[in-house]
Structures are given as structure tokens and as C-alpha cells.
């Protein structure tokens, strides 16, 4: 399949095959893809919580408005943002750059100072909004990688984040959930798999100047 055929093959899976599991290798590919997502400033203030346990996930159906994908999929990926983003994150980021690239302080210091002042100057709600946008980038990346790997997925905003955070004890990790991505394999009788894609014509969505 070409990449376009793979993107046409993917759809928001409504019914997963409960008997099929992702291999450890496929799961690792998704974890690596998440970690390789390009994020603003390169600051990785997102975390991916991978929930395999079916008992835990059964409790999440209610907070996901009855959407069974959260439990019927092979794994549930929960895209989370940190509740606190501060200069500690900037320090850690620059320590990592230094350790990996051996870049001298005199080159890094001006960038570090600029990043710190931007982060410090952001009110909390703006930081949350900014981090949330980063989570959507990771979601898009994961969905595309799923399509390439022929893994089915369903992007989900339809859940109650505060209740899900409570159920998974995310607060103790300093995290808030933003998006869900159940991943696995489509059930043979998921009628949505055969629906034609509904998209505008390219002439309506692309402007060439
Ligand atoms: C951010 C986001 C949130 C979504 N939330 C849900 C959801 O809660 N439940 C669901 O069944 N589909 C959800 N969808 C799936 C969309 O409805 C679907 O992607 C869109 O209609 C296009 O269809 P397709 O993905 O099958 O091509 C969501 C999609 C995105 C991108």
C-alpha cells in the first residue's frame, strides 16, 4: 500500500477485535514514535501512559461516555501533559542536550535563558493550552505511524479527563490526561471499516498561491 492508501485504510475504529493483541515490537514502535514527536522548543513535557490491564480499563468505559474502544482495544494510550511546567524542565532539557551533543555552555546559555524567561512569563492557563497543543501533535504522529504499521486506532476526546485522571491516579504522577488513543485491530464486524471516507475535495481544502 502507498502512504495515501494506508491513510485511506485507517479510520476511527469503533469496534476492536478483543482477541487480538499488539506484539511487544509494535508497541515499542508506538512508544518510540511518541518519543520522537517534534515538540515546541524540543521540551518534552508530555507523557504517554500505556494501559494494558483490562480490569483497570473496564472502569474507564463509564468516564468515556460508554465508548467500549477503551477496553476492547489491545492497549489504551493516554496522552498526558504535566500539571507543572517550569524552569526545572528547561534545566533538564539543556542538561540532556549537553550530555548528548556535548554543546558548550557559552553556546547553550543564551537559548536557555530565553526559554526560561518565556516559560516563566506564561500564566498557568496559557502553559496548559500550549502543552495541550503539543499533545495533539503527538496524537497525529501516533495515528500516522499506526496507519503505516497497519495498527488500528481511534483518536478520542470523548471522555471526562478529571474522572479518568482520578481512576488512573495520574495526579500522583503530576499529569493530566488530554487525549485517548485505543490501539489494536479492528473487529471483522465493525461496520465503520467499510464506510467511504467523508472528505472535502482537494480544491476546497488547498489554496495554491
Ligand atoms: C481529536 C479527535 C477526537 C476524536 N474523538 C472521538 C471520540 O471520542 N470518539 C470517536 O468515536 N471518534 C472520535 N474521533 C474520530 C473522528 O470523528 C474521526 O476521526 C473523523 O470523523 C474522521 O473519520 P476517520 O478518522 O474515520 O477518517 C476523534 C477524532 C479526533 C481527531
Automatic annotation (TrEMBL):
<dbReference type="Pfam" id="PF00881">
    <property type="entry name" value="Nitroreductase"/>
</dbReference>
<protein>
    <submittedName>
        <fullName>NAD(P)H-dependent oxidoreductase</fullName>
    </submittedName>
</protein>
<keyword id="KW-0560">Oxidoreductase</keyword>
<feature type="domain" description="Nitroreductase">
    <location>
        <begin position="8"/>
        <end position="185"/>
    </location>
</feature>
<dbReference type="InterPro" id="IPR000415">
    <property type="entry name" value="Nitroreductase-like"/>
</dbReference>
<keyword id="KW-0288">FMN</keyword>
<dbReference type="InterPro" id="IPR029479">
    <property type="entry name" value="Nitroreductase"/>
</dbReference>
<dbReference type="InterPro" id="IPR033878">
    <property type="entry name" value="NfsB-like"/>
</dbReference>
<comment type="similarity">
    <text>Belongs to the nitroreductase family.</text>
</comment>
<keyword id="KW-0521">NADP</keyword>
<keyword id="KW-0285">Flavoprotein</keyword>
Amino acid at each position: 500500500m502507498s502512504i495515501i492508501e494506508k491513510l485511506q485504510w485507517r479510520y476511527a475504529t469503533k469496534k476492536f477485535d478483543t482477541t487480538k493483541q499488539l506484539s511487544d515490537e509494535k508497541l515499542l514502535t508506538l512508544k518510540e514514535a511518541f518519543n520522537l514527536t517534534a515538540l515546541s522548543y524540543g521540551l518534552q513535557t508530555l507523557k504517554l501512559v500505556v494501559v494494558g490491564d483490562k480490569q483497570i480499563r473496564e472502569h474507564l468505559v463509564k468516564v468515556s461516555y460508554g465508548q467500549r474502544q477503551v477496553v476492547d482495544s489491545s492497549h489504551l494510550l493516554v496522552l498526558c501533559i504535566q500539571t507543572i511546567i517550569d524552569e526545572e524542565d528547561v534545566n533538564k532539557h539543556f542538561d540532556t542536550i549537553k550530555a548528548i551533543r556535548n554543546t558548550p555552555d557559552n553556546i547553550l546559555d543564551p537559548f536557555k535563558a530565553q526559554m526560561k524567561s518565556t516559560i516563566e512569563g506564561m500564566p498557568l492557563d496559557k502553559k496548559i493550552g500550549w502543552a495541550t497543543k503539543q499533545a495533539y501533535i503527538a496524537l497525529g504522529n501516533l495515528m500516522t505511524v499506526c496507519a503505516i504499521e497497519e495498527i488500528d486506532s481511534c483518536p478520542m476526546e470523548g471522555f471526562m479527563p478529571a474522572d479518568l485522571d482520578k481512576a488512573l491516579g495520574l495526579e500522583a504522577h503530576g499529569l493530566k490526561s488530554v487525549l485517548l488513543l485505543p490501539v489494536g485491530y479492528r473487529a471483522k464486524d465493525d461496520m465503520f471499516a467499510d464506510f467511504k471516507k467523508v472528505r472535502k475535495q482537494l480544491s476546497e481544502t488547498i489554496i495554491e498561491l
